[in-house]
Specification:
This protein is mainly beta. It has helices spanning 32-37, 66-69, 117-122, and strands at 13-14, 27-31, 48-51, 61-64, 79-82, 89-92, 137-141, 153-158, 165-170.
Amino acid sequence: MCASCNPQSPQFLSPPRNPGFFSGQTTFKVCASFAAAVAPSSFDQCGLSQQAYRYSPCTPTNPVSASAAWPDTCADGMFVCQSKATQAFSCQPTPCASDDVPTGFANTPCSNYTCTSSAMFLNDNGGAKPVFYEKVAVEIVDDINSGPCFEPVLVHSSASGVGWQVTTLLVVGWYWGGWACQ
């Protein structure tokens, strides 16, 4: 599944549903069900290779524990920051330094989906941010009544004669050399 090569991707770009939190004119909408499926904790058992710099095959990648890189430590009312020096995300009770406000975010307290580790992971160019959307914030929205949003692809297959069904959620890298769970 590739967000930027999905022919429906342009319809996922629209004004923010939460304009108080997002500073840009446009956000890339991701369905809450997809964001939950790619929560960093989902990758702890298989590992994750985080690229140091996107688009540069000569730069090293770092093996990381996804939960450690994108911790689920933000609570409503905290500020989501991203260090300009290290690119690491963090949460704090006070506003971020002006250089540490993530791309497309306003320097305002988070709430609901904007406080999640998935939101940090999906907004990190070294994480799961869709390629070609580096300058656009990813906004997690409800699957229903929120308009079009990028969602998981479900593949159903049945074992013949067994009578049970296997449902597999396909979670594949959003961009070349990114992340994948094998």
